[in-house]
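Re: the 127-residue chain
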Amino acid sequence: QVQLAESGGGLVQAGGSLRLSCAASGRTFSNYDMGWFRQAPGKEREFVAAIRWSGASTYYANSVKGRFTISRDTAKDTVYLQMNSLEPEDTAGYYCAARPRVFSAQTMSNIRQYDYWGQGTQVTVSS
C-alpha cells in the first residue's frame, strides 16, 4: 500500500501561483511513477502532469504545458506541482496518484494504470 496526502490548494486570483505537495508513505517511493490529475464539477477526472520514477522525464497535458511544473524529491518522498499563470479554467480538485514503474512511459496519462490515490486538494481560481 502507498498512502498519498495532498496539500497546498486554496483560492487564488487569475494569474497567480500555487504549489501543491503530495507526501507519500508506505512502499518505496522510487518504485512508482507519480501523476497529478484534476476533476472539475460535472466533469471527468483528467490528466494534468506526471513524472517518471527516476525523475528523468516529465509529461504534461497540453492545457497546462508551459504553466505547470511537476517535480519530485526522493529524500522527502514528495511530489510537487508548481502552478503558475493560473486561469479560472484550472479550478478543480487536484489529486496525486502513483502507478508501478513497470508501465511504459508512453502511457503516463492513462488514469487506469494508477493504483493509489490521495484524497485531493481544492484549487479555486477567481477571475
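Residues 28 and 54 are 12 Å apart (CA to CA).
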